[in-house]
Design a protein that fits this description.
Blueprint (H helix, E strand, L loop, with lengths): L4 H4 L2 E2 L3 H7 L6 E10 L2 E8 L2 E8 L2 H14 L5 E5 L4 E5 L9 H5 L5 E6 L3 E8 L2 E8 L1 H18 L8 E5 L4 E5 L4 E2 L9 H17 L11 H18 L1 H18 L6 E4 L8 E3 L5 E3 L6 E4 H17 L5 H15 L3 H23 L6 H7 L11 H23 L1
Antiparallel strand pairs: 1-2, 2-3, 3-4, 4-6, 5-6, 7-8, 8-9, 9-11, 10-11, 12-14, 13-16, 14-15
Helix pairs in contact: 6-10, 7-8, 7-11, 8-11, 9-10, 9-11, 11-12, 11-13
Length: 410
């Protein structure tokens, strides 16, 4: 696979007939982002003017043809699918998806809007119903029951602390979960506004509440080894699809993995995808959280670090000035009030988040420069966390653990 593989599929020129078949405006398609499933399979998202269209790249021609046929059969005569065998690409419009068989008919409802679609994994459809605005999450039917359980269990635990979308209806056989809309705006939409710092501080408080609730929710474990394996998977795909970045990212991984494995704090209930686009602030200053798909048991520092690195990323994307980015991060930490053990683990998890996001952005052709920018920040001092204080805390905790170990051996 060449260094320019993603560039080779970054632009698609369709014929007017193919654009019409897919219901797209005339013009080329520009690759927004890709998700690797293996070295033979990518999930794709293209921009078509103001719209998006998803697809898949498969290296095996027979497999591509099989997926195309099954996707077309799933949606019958109304299937908006197109096979480009010379590029190894299948395009899927208006919810056509063989593994999400209910999606296309949901998208076809009057007033429905396909908000997001990751092929053969999940999608979100906005629905304007008689009793208000709702969002339908469509997942592989086998996964619907587990997701519904986690949402309901977390709802009971956090109701008094912050809001999450209410599960209004569940069709488990079809893999459809319908949720109420969250009021307010996401922190991402509040970037550069006067409300960002207040929202970040409230988000920190809400996350601390989530981490303090009972861990009785049956959620998968995502500890140190799972975080390392996640990053290793991304690195393997980088080696295939973006080898010009591989050695830089792989070299950084040694220090990242060593720091992650150096210690471990008590495990808590995590959101595991906690960042500005998932956090909503309403007019009363109350926080709402989206997407509980990734709820897991792990170290609190993972969620904290992910939020902090995303504020850093917004500066790299020129969405925030450095001063604004630091102010948001500081406000978030003021709200969360990490204890000593969590503070010590934040730098390691921030570096892990930087490396993981560097891999993610390597698969976004028009933002791939951010991969190098993120990885260059690994092991840099974190100015919004007092490094001298952390060093003192480290010595203190080491002494406390030594005393506990000596006491237990007597």
């Amino acid at each position: 696979m060449s260094d320019t593989f993603l560039n080779k599929i970054s632009m698609l020129d369709l014929s007017p007939a193919d654009n019409e078949r897919l219901g797209l405006p005339l013009g080329g398609l520009r690759l927004q982002r890709a998700w690797p499933r293996s070295h033979n399979h990518l999930l794709l998202e293209y921009a078509a003017g103001e719209r998006t269209i998803v697809g898949q790249w498969l290296s095996n021609t027979k497999q591509l043809q099989s997926v195309f046929q099954k996707t077309a059969e799933c949606c019958q005569k109304n299937a908006k699918v197109l096979e480009l065998p010379d590029r190894g690409i299948l395009l899927q419009a208006e919810g056509a998806d063989r593994r999400l068989p209910a999606l296309a008919s949901l998208v076809a409802r009057p007033g429905a809007l396909l908000v997001s679609h990751r092929p053969e994994q999940r999608a979100v459809v906005r629905l304007e119903l008689a009793d208000g605005l709702f969002y339908a999450k469509v997942v592989i039917p086998d996964r619907a029951q587990g997701l519904a359980y986690r949402v309901r269990a977390v709802q009971k635990l956090v109701d008094n602390f912050f809001s999450i979308p209410k599960l209004a209806k569940a069709d488990l056989n079809s893999g459809i979960l319908v949720f109420s809309a969250l009021p307010g705006q996401s922190l991402y939409d509040l970037l550069n506004s006067q409300s960002l710092a207040d929202g970040a501080q409230a988000a920190g408080k809400a996350l601390r509440k989530l981490h303090s609730v009972s861990d009785s929710v049956r959620a998968p474990r995502h500890g140190i080894s799972e975080e390392i394996e996640t990053i290793k998977f991304w690195l393997k795909q980088i080696k295939v699809f973006a080898p010009h970045l591989y050695f830089r990212l792989f070299a950084a991984s040694t220090d990242v993995f060593r720091a992650l494995g150096a210690d471990q704090t008590p495990l808590v209930l995590l959101h595991r995808d906690f960042y500005d686009k998932q956090i909503f602030l309403d007019e009363q200053g109350l926080i709402g959280l989206l997407d509980l798909d990734t709820v897991a048991i792990g170290e609190a520092a993972l969620d904290v670090a992910n939020a902090l690195v995303h504020f850093e990323l917004r500066h790299l994307q020129s969405r925030l000035s450095q001063t604004e980015s630091m102010a948001a991060a500081t406000a978030f930490l003021d709200g969360y009030q990490p204890d000593q053990e969590v503070q010590l683990r934040i730098p390691a998890y921030m570096d892990a988040a930087r490396l993981r996001l560097a891999c993610v952005y390597a698969f976004r052709p028009y933002q791939s420069h951010l991969a190098e920018a993120l990885v260059s920040r690994i092991r840099q001092p974190i100015s919004h966390i007092n490094s001298e204080r952390i060093q003192r805390l480290g010595i203190q905790l080491f002494l406390e653990k030594s005393i506990r170990l000596r006491s237990s051996s007597r």
